[in-house]
Amino acid sequence: MKPLKQVAQAYLAVREGDGKLQAGEPEGSARAFRRAMELTRTIPEEEVFEHDGFDAMCLAGLAEALASLGEYPAALDAADRALRYFGRRGELHQDEGKRWIAAVLARGLALARSEQAQDALKAFETAREMISERKGELPGKEDMLVMIEENIGLLRRTMPDEPAGRKGWWEFWS
Description:
There is one protein chain. The protein has one domain: Tetratricopeptide repeat domain (Serine Threonine Protein Phosphatase 5, Tetratricopeptide repeat). It is built from seven helices and no strands. It is elongated, with a radius of gyration of 18 Å. Helix 4 runs antiparallel to helix 5 (98-113). The model has no long low-confidence stretch (mean pLDDT 87). The protein has helices at 3-22, 26-40, 51-68, 72-89, 98-113, 117-133, 141-158. The chain has 174 residues and is mostly helical.
C-alpha cells in the first residue's frame, strides 16, 4: 500500500472514531482510533510521518471513548500518553486545542472514577480554564462546562475538608 493511501485511511478512521463518539457509540469509536494508529504503523520508516503527534490525536479520542465505556485505567493511560505529547509539542493540527481538552477531560473522569479526587479536581479545573480561554467554536462547549461543574461539585462534596489551622503556602510570604 502506498504511504499516501495509508495516511488517508488512517485519517478516515480518526473521522469515523469522532463520528461514533458523537453518535454515542464508544465501542466503535475505540476500535476506529486503534485502527487509525495501526494503519500508520505500516508506513515505511523512510517516509516522513509524525507518528507521535498522530498517536496523541488518536489517544485523546481513545481516552474519551474508554472513559465512556467505564474502562478508567485504560482511559487514564491513553489520556496521559496523549498529554505527554501535547505538553511537549502542542497539538498536531491546530484544532484550537479540541483534542487536548478532550484528553484532559477524559483524564479527569478516569481519575474521579478511580478515587483520585484531588488529581481529578485539578484536571477538571484545568479543562474548565482551557475551555474558557479557547477562542472560536467548540462543539458541545456548554455540555462540557456543565459536566465539568457537576464533577467539580461532586468531588468537592466528597473530599475531606482541610485540617483546621493549616496555612496556605501564600500566607508564609505575605
